[in-house]
Amino acid sequence: MNNTTPEIRDLARRLLANEDRTSVDAAVGVCQELRQPLIKLAGTEGFRALLSRALSLAKTQDPLLAGLRVGADGALERFEPLDPQTSHSRWAEAEVQLIAQLLALLATFIGQPLTLQLVRGIWPNLADEVAGGGNNS
Prior knowledge:
Elements: H1 6-18, H2 25-61, E1 68-70, E2 76-78, H3 88-110, H4 112-122, H5 127-131
Antiparallel strand pairs: 1-2
């Protein structure tokens, strides 16, 4: 099941590109940035459930994510080392799948306008890009 739209995937790419990290660590960073505001909104268990579901959906689309899990505190964790044979661009696409699933689920639960408002609050430097729904390619 892929419930992400091209706009959501584009937004996920922009958020990941904004992270100053490499490999799957960019997805960890984006999830960490979203974690505190969403814990305030839904509690730790609510955020953990949301991220767990997003990870589960993303794993069905991309098996590279099999080495990730959601910790008891809701943090995204890597429990298997990255395969050095996998290219950076291939990992980047797996990350997009995960973050897009998370954003799509969030938009389903709280609506796209509130999701975009939340994203703009966390990443104000992306405010202009996010304001258009991620269509400024």
